[in-house]
Structures are given as structure tokens and as C-alpha cells.
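Notebook B, p. 112. Complex prediction, attempt 2.
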Amino acid sequence: MLKKLLMTGAAGGVGKSLRPLLHRLAERVVLSDITEISDLSPHETFRRCDLGDRAHVDALFDGVDGVLHLGGISLEKPFDLILNGNIVGVYNLFEAARHHDMPRIIFASSNHVTGFYTRHERVDPSMPVRPDSLYGVSKVFGEGIASLYFDKFGQECLSIRIGWCFPKPINPRTQAIWLGVEDLFDLCERGFTAPRVGHTIIYAVSDNEEMWWDNSSAAFLGWKPRQSSARWRADVLANMKLETPTDPDVIYQGGHFATSKHPDDE
Amino acid sequence: MLKKLLMTGAAGGVGKSLRPLLHRLAERVVLSDITEISDLSPHETFRRCDLGDRAHVDALFDGVDGVLHLGGISLEKPFDLILNGNIVGVYNLFEAARHHDMPRIIFASSNHVTGFYTRHERVDPSMPVRPDSLYGVSKVFGEGIASLYFDKFGQECLSIRIGWCFPKPINPRTQAIWLGVEDLFDLCERGFTAPRVGHTIIYAVSDNEEMWWDNSSAAFLGWKPRQSSARWRADVLANMKLETPTDPDVIYQGGHFATSKHPDDE
Amino acid sequence: MLKKLLMTGAAGGVGKSLRPLLHRLAERVVLSDITEISDLSPHETFRRCDLGDRAHVDALFDGVDGVLHLGGISLEKPFDLILNGNIVGVYNLFEAARHHDMPRIIFASSNHVTGFYTRHERVDPSMPVRPDSLYGVSKVFGEGIASLYFDKFGQECLSIRIGWCFPKPINPRTQAIWLGVEDLFDLCERGFTAPRVGHTIIYAVSDNEEMWWDNSSAAFLGWKPRQSSARWRADVLANMKLETPTDPDVIYQGGHFATSKHPDDE
Amino acid sequence: MLKKLLMTGAAGGVGKSLRPLLHRLAERVVLSDITEISDLSPHETFRRCDLGDRAHVDALFDGVDGVLHLGGISLEKPFDLILNGNIVGVYNLFEAARHHDMPRIIFASSNHVTGFYTRHERVDPSMPVRPDSLYGVSKVFGEGIASLYFDKFGQECLSIRIGWCFPKPINPRTQAIWLGVEDLFDLCERGFTAPRVGHTIIYAVSDNEEMWWDNSSAAFLGWKPRQSSARWRADVLANMKLETPTDPDVIYQGGHFATSKHPDDE
Amino acid sequence: MLKKLLMTGAAGGVGKSLRPLLHRLAERVVLSDITEISDLSPHETFRRCDLGDRAHVDALFDGVDGVLHLGGISLEKPFDLILNGNIVGVYNLFEAARHHDMPRIIFASSNHVTGFYTRHERVDPSMPVRPDSLYGVSKVFGEGIASLYFDKFGQECLSIRIGWCFPKPINPRTQAIWLGVEDLFDLCERGFTAPRVGHTIIYAVSDNEEMWWDNSSAAFLGWKPRQSSARWRADVLANMKLETPTDPDVIYQGGHFATSKHPDDE
Amino acid sequence: MLKKLLMTGAAGGVGKSLRPLLHRLAERVVLSDITEISDLSPHETFRRCDLGDRAHVDALFDGVDGVLHLGGISLEKPFDLILNGNIVGVYNLFEAARHHDMPRIIFASSNHVTGFYTRHERVDPSMPVRPDSLYGVSKVFGEGIASLYFDKFGQECLSIRIGWCFPKPINPRTQAIWLGVEDLFDLCERGFTAPRVGHTIIYAVSDNEEMWWDNSSAAFLGWKPRQSSARWRADVLANMKLETPTDPDVIYQGGHFATSKHPDDE
């Protein structure tokens, strides 16, 4: 069990969903976000942080022995925002870790690093990236930093390419990439308890019926997702009438991320 | 749900097994065969058809929004029969589809397109074909037509390489490739409801213990076979005494298709 | 050296180019075509043949110990023509061989069996076919017959997927797939002199600079093409101004075969 | 069911665990070891044997129609011992089989043939060996003999690379490679009842959560392990505090086999 | 031939070497750098540019129909410098291209995106990146931007992972990765004249004897390097005495990039 | 340049051919064999050695900084001979090296470790072994020892799978696997001068036209064979009349090694 877990991006959707479970993993939890969090449990502390500010980030790491990095931008946004939160922010995070005894990091990467593969292609983490957005490119950068920091400095990191982590799927795409919160928590638990993770990349997706990704390279972690989007299948099918096979939204794994305009042009 | 499903080869063994299930998939079902079918349910219509006759085939497609093509020859036969049913017949079918708004096709291909692989080899649909019979070569042709019609005309098709679709296995070979009818129906349902199938090839085989084939490339369909030949294992073992490891029937996946003579010489 | 070589399709372009070289390979050469050939050399004989006529084909094989099968349709054509020349014709040819001591066959397949791959993809003969035309599908059938006849009957065959066998390239596509006649002859020589070819598929292409195909799986043949399209590169570049990267003719390996309409609609 | 099964190494740990189950597999069981076994059941016979003695080994094979070869050295030991038990011993065993109608052999190989892969690497039996000990090299030799004897003489053999076959795991490494006895028995049953095994290599490991190995190439056997080390996970985690990610014992699959000194230097 | 080629980083070593050759490729050449260039030829123009300044970069693109992007930081440097030159700078460059008719880009990536592979590993552009420096990570970002801009906007780019582009090799590592200027020029010429490059990644390395990289995926370009480091082999061997096989500088492809400290700690 | 090279098996055919070239590689050469060598050059010394005798082998290593291990049995022989020369002998050699500062070893392995692949298969050193003889199995053992000694002790070794190292080829098989002595010498030179070889396996074969093997994984060595068997092709073809494609001698890469009987039965 961890002594003190740092979770960045704690005010976001995924962060909120995970908070009630983290006490199983750590004695104390430091929550960080640029947005204030006020409803703290006794084992939780809050520290406001702009990830683009190196001193802010350094200040989070005192006594931390595990990091769950959900912070930064999680949608397509203008480049300046992504640069600050996801490029400078990730660099600051890994630098802070390097200067504070290198606690293991779980880094929230995204399925959007490979969003330009089609849904017919089976993708595994060793295949070339095909980002579908500036956001996706920023996650490519983050995985690159994680690779470097392990190879050069020994900083361990599990990069999890998160699918669709919302209460339920809303269309065939999100049905294929849905991630239940319990499964996500189990993955984090595996990430912190495995004797060694080096730098490992894994798709964070539940045991859905439709499956685009192959995680067999990370089977050493022993993660077995147990949730499935299948129970919503009838609902999804009933609402699917607008999907046509020649629509790029239907062709690419990234869905509308792949087909949206440049953020400056929206 | 489909409005009007066309099933060719409806008087054959597989067709007969599927008929009672098709009402779950389509409002109306057009049954076609060269042999008359008389025991029709209210949602069923019959149309006699020689697949080698282009006008016959065209006449089947009025209002059809899904095709399950089981028709043609399903055993090793003299070339003239195969030519008419499986070469000209398949061409006629895809041409008719192209001229009638391209309803999605599920094409009954066969494990005999790869019947000259040995049972020790794990085969997936991306590997080179090794047909074991003139029948198998005709299915190679059919998959080639399906590939062309998608790439060039956008006609979607799911080619299913059917294993042994009979009530129960009769020897180790059929135990490994047995396909239960419920599983086959589920696969067809997936084929028609997936937002996009392009041209996809999959082995149609139940969740048997022995497994020669790897369908992971088609995992995007979400098909999870739930039947298994395992419950007949004891019976099969008890009757297996005649199998010797050096018998070509035992070596090749195609079994006696691989070792039978040319049909002209039988 | 062969005693008696049969070359079908001898009146076509490739056949005409090869004729002057065949005396190095065989004592006698039987030329066959549906079109009369009259300018015979002393070592040459002509036999008219409609490949769709089984008796015609059988009559060609007397005493033959090597076959170079160039016959049939070599362009996109209506299905009836392709059916007769390339489906029934190939079957007749292999049947005739099977009944006449199985002389080794070199079968002129085509790059159009994989014409729907893009030019950025490196293709080798073990990859799935992606035919770009009915013509291409007929060659898929032919390779399937060749595979069957070797696995089942021991009939050896070298299937050569011919590129662009004309005097010189006319655009970037044909520059990448150009095949010089001397190189083609050397390949045939290798095909007949190798101790064993089983059923082998190889791309017949000269040592051009641009290269889409990987023949390493057939390196056992020892074929080293020595001609190159490079000497026409300046001419080709000078005439290339009409090529744009988003033109499907430029995207697909099959060029205009991939983008042409169905032959019935031309 | 076998008439007479020979199990070598019957006095060792794995042999003892399997003995109570073998009556399901064979009418009579010949137990062999260099150590006396006295608590025989009615269907069991004991024959003392030094595997390095050719005559001893030959004497075991009378009437035998199945062999389970667990004998020899199963730990790192000085070379002389390994040479006698695992090199000469294996050769003697296969020679005896060759002279006695070639009963099918199940050969206890070891995960230590690939012990120098790291735990992050997913290993399958087709990958190059990386033995972690002289013991591991002797098993490489044994698999080489098995390969030769099948290819040249037709002797069938299933080489099983046994993981950790003890009552329960004691640390993360043995949790990942734990093999339950029931699962091992089922694997042996599959090995003897499959119509054909040729020479097949498989990792013998239960259905644990953490998984380093990929047995899909042997799926034709139909072996489905049903035991799992997961129920001891909490215990293992509680005792894991000494594992650090930079410890070679933690890095390599072979654990302390990979990091131990040469046996002469211990 | 191009009308107007933009070369950024023109005052650097590679830029200087290429300048005398560019007149073969373009009528006019715009040289850009943060450092002034004064010795201009008649076909050359100079424009000072800080790549981190979007307006500066935009101003370079007027009338440009080809871009050779050598600009930015080319060594390990503190993150702020790399951020400005290689992250913001690359984004600015692709944005400027997108707003100016998308002239094809040749992007100088680096072998340091895969510098943590060992010299025994054969690396091709489809393998996962393993950057050896912050500099290397910035090139991972740049290739990610190039991938996105092609997939989403159709901007074509050839990413060239440059080896050691200096007059001659100085040790075994640079002997293996040496790139002659003529070869580099030829590669650029291929990049601009190929009918279509999409987004292609290639290692820019001469035809040296020692070879760590496999460029076969880019064979469609027709680039055949003709220079070789072999003529300096004797010199290199004579000076090699300090290389020991256990030195990380000798183990990793990135050499001292892989073993140097963090730039903040130097 | 080496100070003192040890060459075992110096009285054999390959050893004799190499001797006149070794002065280019080493100041002094220790020749060892079980057979006396008397025609010594000034830089040569002879030491008789039975490889099966540990003390004999140890005595060879004084001051040695490079080993070329050609010694042992090089043909199919009864197991006792192979055990002594190639199993115990190899172990003794690596043990002696481990106790004498670990001079780099070039180990003469053999193409017979993969002799049961067919000639149509392209084999690379990462593929599973398929030995064709007891001799071949002994080389599998030797490569296993080499792998262990590098991974565990850091002993570097280049294992060279020698083809047919005789003055000229005598049939198609030896034409495909012929190795010229100059090429072999160059390979040895590369093996000793490369900064690091770890444990690398390579096929030692000249630049013949027919090629069964793929050495690209060892391209980092920079070895470019320059000799070829092609100049004897006409002679080989003229004498080839006895080769038939269904002869196992023609099917398998190992030729008569694959088809010969067990040495005890000859």
C-alpha cells in the first residue's frame, strides 16, 4: 500500500470517479488540479497547481511514493493550451519526480495517439502512432518523455491509453472503447503493485465484446478487466441508425477527433 | 433490424438450421434455392433460382437490404458444377447486389480455402490460401470477388469460412472445427449490425477447446461464440482409435478433402 | 535444357518478346495462341488453341516437358471473356498437365492480384490478395488452382506476377514495376532449372530503383534481375506533371486498373 | 487409455504429485527413478534406473505405449551431473523409444530455456532460447533431440516447459509461472490423446493472472488450464516488500537461476 | 524542378553542406536561420527567422513550393531551448504550410528518436521510438505532428532520421550511421519528385557496411545511397582502442546521447 | 590486431584453408588439433589437444586474446564421439575462456542446426532450430552454451553457421550454401574487430545467387561476402540430372544429413 499518492487532474471526470476508490490503494491522497476541490475526505489533501509552472509541480511531490497523472487538457484545444498543460506540464511532472526519489508514475495517455487507425485494424502498443488531434500529439510527446526517463534515469511509468471513461457508451465507437471505473482502478492497482513496470504502454479498456486493441504485450501485469459495455448493446443498436459505413466518423478509431477541424478553425 | 433478408441455398443443411432463427434478424425473409421449399412461415417467401443464371439472381434482389449467401456447391464436385454454382454464381450475386443498392452480403466461404495447412499450424485470415479441393478454389475466387467489390465499388461483405456446421462432431477434426447454429446466427447478426465491415474474413467456428484458427483480426465485430464441442469429447475419443498420426487425413486441416482424388477420378 | 517447351499466348506482346530467346531454353518450342502465328523458326511449331476448349488444350501437351502459360485475357474485359480464357482456360491447362506427366508450369499471373495496395505499402507474395479488376480476380483463381495442384497432385508451378513488360516505362507507376525481357527470360530459366519449385509465387519485376515488392521469399531461385528502368527516369519525370498525390491512379499500385469502372459500364 | 505408461523421475516432487492421478490415464504405470519408491499401488511397478546407463533405460520400455519423462537433474548443478542425467540421459531415452516402437513421449523441459528474457517480454515457443543455467542449456539440448527424432524418425514428443509446480507461489515470479497439478495432468492427458503432436513445445503454466508466455501456437491441443495462482495474490503482495525493480532477480524470467553464479563457484 | 525552395536552419552544418547542391532542385532558394547568412548566390535569398515566432515563420512561405526543414536545436540542450525551437517551431512550420497551399515538407528528424536501441538490434521506422535525449523526444513530437497533418489535412511530409552528416566518421558508431552529403541531396530530390510521399519516415544513412537500420518500407522512393564510410574503416579501427563492449556508449545506438546526463545537470 | 589467436581444429579442412590468412589478423597463432601439424610458419605454434579433456583445453589459453573454435566432430558420427568433441568439448572451451579473461570466441556452428527446413523456406537465425543430425543437435547445444555464457558471464561469442566451405560446389544444394575462404576470413575479421558482438548468430555463406538464409539481423557487423558460387553454375546444372523434386535430399536444406540413417544403423 502506498503511503502518499498524488493524483493530478483530480477535479476532472476521471479523477472524480476514481477518488472514492483510492483509499484502497494509499494511506493519504494528495489531490491536485487547477480547479479547487472542497469536499475532501480525511485522507485527502488538496493542492492547487498549474502544471505549466515548474515550482507548483515540484511542490506537490513532498513524500509522494506514487503518482497518478490525469492532469492537463483532455480534449482538442488550441495549441497554446495544450503546450502549457500537456507538453510543459508533462515535462515538469517527470522532472519533479526525478528530483523526488522517482515515485512510480501512472500517466494518462489516450487512445487518440492512434486515432487514425481504422476500426478494422487491430492495434497494439508497439505499432506506430497515428494521432488524430493536437491533443493526441501531446500524448505522443508524453509517452516519449516517459520512455526517455525510464531508459536514461530509471523512472518507472505505466502509460495507459484511456478509452471512453464515462458511465456508459453512447454509440458503437464508445461501446468498443468503454472503460469502467472499477477496471481502471484495478489497472492502477496493478501498476503500483507490479514488481517492475519499466516503461509500459497499455490500452485502458474494459472487457467489451467489440475490441480494437491488443494488450497481450502487457499481460505480465496480470490486469483482467471485468466490466463490459455489452449490457448497453441493445440501447446502442437502437440509436445507431445514423451510422453509415462511409462516414469518416465511423471509419476511424478516433471518431470525431479524427474528422474535426483544426481548433483554430472551429 | 433488416426489412428483407435474402438467404440463398436455403434448402441446404446450414440454411435449414438457420431458418427458425432468422425472424430475429429481419421482418421478411426471401428463401432461395434450386430445390423447392414448401413449408414456409408467414414471414418467409420462396424463390427458385439457378445461381448460374444472371436474370434469376437479379430477380431475387428487389427490396432486399441484407444477403446471406449460402448457395452453390458445398462439397467437392466435378468442375462444371462448381463453375456454374460457385464461380458464375458468385459473380452473378455480387453483380445483382451492385445493381440493387448494394445490400450488405454475408458470404459463406469455407475452411477448405486453407485445408492444406497442417493441424499444428495456427492459421489466420491474413495467411496465404492453401485450398484442398476445386470447391476450396472456388471459395478463393469468391473471396477475391468480395475483396474487389468492396475496394472498387464499396460493396460490403463479411466472408465467413465455415467449419463443420452439423449437430455434433464425429471425430477429432470436426471437434476442432465444429460450429453451433446459435453461434453462426450470432455471427450473422454481428455481420449485419456492425456499423462497417468493409470486406472482412473470419473463421466461423464455435468456442471449442481445440482451436486451429486465430480470429483476432476480426475482434472489432464483437462476436463471442458461446457453444463448444467439448461436451462430445469423451464420445469422440472413444471412437478415435482409427486415427494414426501419419495418416494424411489426420495431418491436414482439410481432412479427407485434402486426400481425396480429383472428382473426375472418383 | 528442355526437350519441348509449350508457350501459350505466344502471339501476345510478352510472348512475341520472349520468342527469340527461347531457343536457349528448349530444343523445340510449341507456340500456341488463338491468333495464327506464321513467321516460324525451324525449332518452332504453331498450334491454334482456344484455352476454353479442353480438347484443344489437351492436344498441345504431347511430349511437352515444360509449359510457359501466357495465354488468356491480359486486360480488364467483360466477365464472359475472362471466364473462358482465364478461369476455364487455366483449369484446362492444369488438367492437361496432370494427364501428361505433369511438366513444370510457369504461370503468368499479374501484379493486378494486389493492385489495391497503395504505393507506400511494401507487398510480398504471402500477403492477402487485393485484386483491382475482374482480370485480377481471375489470376487469384489461377494461383489458387496452382496451389491445389501442387499440394494435392505434386504438379510444380512458378506463378510469376508480371509487372509492366513493355519496352520502356511511361510514368512513375510503370517505372516502378517495369520488367525487362532479358530479366523475364532469366526468371523463366530459373523456374525450369531449379531442382524444385513446389508452388512458388514471385513478382516479375526488374531491378528498378523504386520498388514496391519484396521477393525475398523466393531467393532460393537465385534470380537476380539485371535490367533497370532508371535510365528512363529523366524522361518520366519530365512527363510527370499531371500526377497529383491525391489522384487514386497515383495512390494505388494497380493504377487505372484500380480506378476504372466495371467493364459492363465502360 | 494407455496400456502401460512409463514415468521417469517418479520420486521427484512433480512425479509424486502426479502419481495419484495417473490411473485415469493408463492401466499400468511403470515408475522409474534412481531413488527407490516403495509405497506402490497395485497398478504401479517400480524400476530403478540411472538414466546415464543405456541398458538401464532400454530395460524400462518393454510394452510401454506412453512415456512421461520427468527424470534427470531439475536444478542448477555441476556440469558432470547434468551431462549424465540430462544430456546422455535424454539421448538414451529417445534411443530406447526408437528401438521400442516409438511410444509417444512427454518431455519435461523447463522455463529455464528462456530464463534470460525479461518479465516484460512476452515469449512464445518459436522465439530463440535464452537459457539461464547449465540446467537450462541441457533442456535446450533435449528439445533439440526431440526435434530431430520427430523430423527424422517420426518419434512424436510434446516438450512441456514447466513453470513452478509446487503447492503454491512464494513471490511474484512464481505467481506468474505457477502450475497446478491438475492442470499439468490435463496437459499430459491432451498430449497422449491428441491424434498427432509431432514435436510441439508448450509452456506448462496455469491460468494465472500475470502471464509471460504465449501458448497460442499449441492451441490445437485444446488444453485449457483451469487453476490459477490468483487466490494467493494477497499473501504474495504482503511478502513482496523485498522486491525492487532494479534487482536482476526481478528483471529476468529465470529469477535466481539467471543471477546465480556458476555451480563450480558456489 | 521546384520554383522556390525554403530551407530552414541554413546556417547549420548540414544546411551549409547542402547549399551548393540546391540549384539542381529549385530555381530559387530561400535560406532561413536565426544566424545571418551573407555569402548569397544569385538564386539565394536570406530571411532571418526565430522558429518560435509564428509571424516570422509565416513570412517565409510566400510562393514556396517545397520546404526543407533543418531548423531548430540539433543537440541535447536545456528544455526551454528545445521547446522553442523544436516543439513550438515545428508546430509553427506546419501551421504556416497549412495556410500556404501545403508545399511538401522534408523534415529533419534524427536517429536519436531511437537512440536507446542497442547496436545489435535492427531497427525500422515502424518500431516504437526509444528517444535518448530531450532533443530526441522533440523529434518524436515533430514526427507526430507530421503524421497528424497528413492524416487530417493532407499535408505531405518526408521525415528523415539523419545519421551522422559530417565529412567523415570518427569512431565505429559514426561509421555505421555516416551520411554523405550527395546521398542526402539525392534523398531530398526523391522526396520532392516522388508522385506521393504521404507521411513517410526513413533513416538517412549512406550505403555503409555496418548497418543498424532497415529502410525497406520506404523502397518505393527509389533512393539508393551511393556513398559509404568504408574507405575510412582502417582509420577508424586504428583509433578504436578505447571502445570496450561493456561501455554504454558502445552498447546503445545513440552513443553519448544515451549516456549523457540531463542537460540541467551538466 | 590480436596478439595471440587460438584456432582449434586447425588440422581440418576449414582450418587448413584459413591458416595462410591468419597472419593478417594476429601476431601469433596457436594451432590446436588432436592430429599433429608439423609445417608451422614462424608465427604459428602447435598444441595437441583432446577437447574432451578439460586440462588440455585450459592449457591452450595462456595469453590468448581471440579464439576461433573449429574443433570437434564435423560430420554425423556415433553419439559418443559427438558427446566428447562437441558437447564436453564446447563446455570445456567456454570454461577455459571464462577462467582466462574471456577472449572473444568465434564458434563454428553449422547450417545443420536448421537442416530440416525445406529449401523453399527462408531461414533466419531467430527461427526455431530444426537439427538434421546428432551433429546438428550438438551445435544447438553449443549455441545454447554461448548464449548462456554471454547473458550470465559477459563472454562474447559470434556463432557462425557454416555452409559448404570447400573449393567449389558439387550440386545445387552446395551451390546455394557455398562459402569461400576469403569470405570466411573476412567474417572472422569482423567478428574480432566489431566493438561488441554479444552473442550473435550468423549464417556463414558467400554472396551466392541462390540464397536460403537471411542474415539481416547481423548487418551491424558490416560483413559483405564478395565471393559467389555463380561461376560454377553451368557445371552444376550439367551434372544435376539426378535431382528430382520429390527426393528428400532435394527437399531439405540439410541434404543427405536429413535423410541419412541413425549413425548406429549405418
